[in-house]
UniProtKB/TrEMBL annotation:
Pfam short name (any one): DUF2007
InterPro entries named among the record's database cross-references: DUF2007, N-reg_PII-like_a/b
Domain of life the protein comes from: Bacteria
Location of the DUF2007 domain: 5-66
Name listed for the protein in its UniProt record: DUF2007 domain-containing protein
Length: 68
């Protein structure tokens, strides 16, 4: 990922990554989902959600309940 962005959430499930992105964007935080799954073996890899460095702390707080 480019400089200035931090990984705030990681999951093996696309729907959870999209839920995280939606929560963040509904709170005014731009978020990007990156698909790191292997194209040949869908059970390998994760979906990563990134936010700007400046939004990281707030993002962690917003997603705290989603991680449980």
């Amino acid at each position: 990922m480019e400089e200035g962005w931090k990984e705030v959430y990681m999951t093996a499930h696309e729907y959870k990554a999209e839920m995280a992105r939606e929560i963040l964007e509904n709170n005014g935080i731009k978020a990007i989902v990156m698909n790191q799954q292997d194209t040949a073996y869908k059970s390998f890899g994760e979906y990563l959600v990134y936010v700007a460095d400046a939004d990281y702390t707030r993002s962690v707080k917003l997603l705290k309940n989603l991680k449980n």
